[in-house]
């Protein structure tokens, strides 16, 4: 053993390392369905392996790393969370929902296959997420595994992400008999805290569980993840206004076309940029107590706020 | 305390008692989504509370009762399983899948609401199932709860029910690029063992886990549930041929219209009835070692084989 620290990893390098590991793990676990239906397995792969930044798994892995948990130990829980994210995209893109043809520059699952297959591939990925969390590889302690299951279910279900998706459809005026969420800052914030924020916050909560974080440490990670979730959405809104489909990899300009209130509409482009900067600083400050171990997570907050796709 | 045994409960009474308890529990747990989206909550209720025999929860509760587990202790796991069953019906009925307008004599979820709401209500019910299993009320031992999660995920996902649904769509010739399952007895049996059998077998496996069954006891319950699952499907095929929509509560004659091979087509009506009788006897014999405690489960096997809806 030597005292020499390894050279600090760059954020770009860490993101690639994490994305590669998660893709390999997704590939491996999706193959379980192969003996039953080759077509289902191919559609699950299409939904889960067509690229993507793997931000949520990265947040799981780096949050766990704050407590010395190696990537290999955090990988099953990180992969489970990515399964949930990918299922939600496959269902969100369906004709009955957002009706998108393009996702990450590729045909969406129902365009590459068909609607029934896209629905079932999404269902199978959601179910697979819980299967992965239940296995000893996710964590040696069954009590921690069950805490991971409970937290994921709350983040992903009707009280979390799926509830937020319903609010999002209501915000488009899709339901004549249901009120639209308030088109003000608190209404937009609430919708987004459920639709996209819940899984991002859950990513850091997963790292805290894997790392046996103290309540204070978990609270700091929660503050970080809350700020990052809000920054993620404001950056998304800016891309919807300013991006072009080729760079962003999906249709843009859809929010204003759908008549939805967004952070950018409510704050203005300049106001949104100021809020982004405030959130990045808040995210940095939340992790100050972790010292240099938190450098990658702090850089990730800025990356998320300033991303171009 | 007295030595006088309570009067033996009739199957009909036990089914009603169980169905009422499960409906009350579904009502209570679905309400968790209410603060987020009233419409989502109503659609989840529509999917889960429009009647139904609650056979799967009954099998959970009665399997657990073999080992002295009271209904109140088996109810959360039984309710979780019913959430999965109800989600699968809501998705199965969608226009992109079986395109059914009627279920249990009521409009299907997408007819009563809309397709997007039906997709999300299904997603939320599936997620809720795992949330319920993760809570201490499901079982005081976290290791048992995680075993319940693992078993449910395997039974419901791409290796289980969802895989069977894909095979079922393939059997209708829906996918030009995918082979159709063999239209012989082993092909039909494999499809049905996944599509409907997996959850029925899981019901009894759940009871065995809750009851700390020995490996031998669990194996007897597995034999029972395998026979009951097969009998359930043959009875379903007979109803599709012989029933009328008003009694059955859903469209009939769909299998032959879709060109799918069925047990009844392969065995003939008389052959199917003989096989049903054989399965009921097999189910009875499997539970002989449990004595009179197994009477209700044994009666249930005959009820499932002879049901008219």
Automatic annotation (TrEMBL), chains A, B:
Gene Ontology terms for molecular function: metal ion binding; prenyltransferase activity
**Gene3D superfamilies reported for this sequence:** Farnesyl Diphosphate Synthase (1.10.600.10)
- Give UniProt keywords alphabetically: Isoprene biosynthesis, Magnesium, Metal-binding, Transferase
For this record, the Gene Ontology CC terms, alphabetical, are: cytoplasm
Question: Which protein, by its recorded name, is this?
Answer: Probable farnesyl diphosphate synthase
Sorted alphabetically, which PANTHER family does this protein's record hold?
FARNESYL DIPHOSPHATE SYNTHASE
Q: Which organism is it from?
A: Ancylobacter defluvii
Presence of keyword Ribosomal protein: no
Biological processes per GO annotation: terpenoid biosynthetic process
Per its UniProt record, the required cofactor names are: Mg(2+)
Q: Does the keyword RNA-binding apply?
A: no
Q: Which InterPro entries match?
A: Isoprenoid_synthase_dom_sf, Polyprenyl_synt, Polyprenyl_synt_CS, Prenyl_diphosphate_synthase
Similarity comment: Belongs to the FPP/GGPP synthase family.
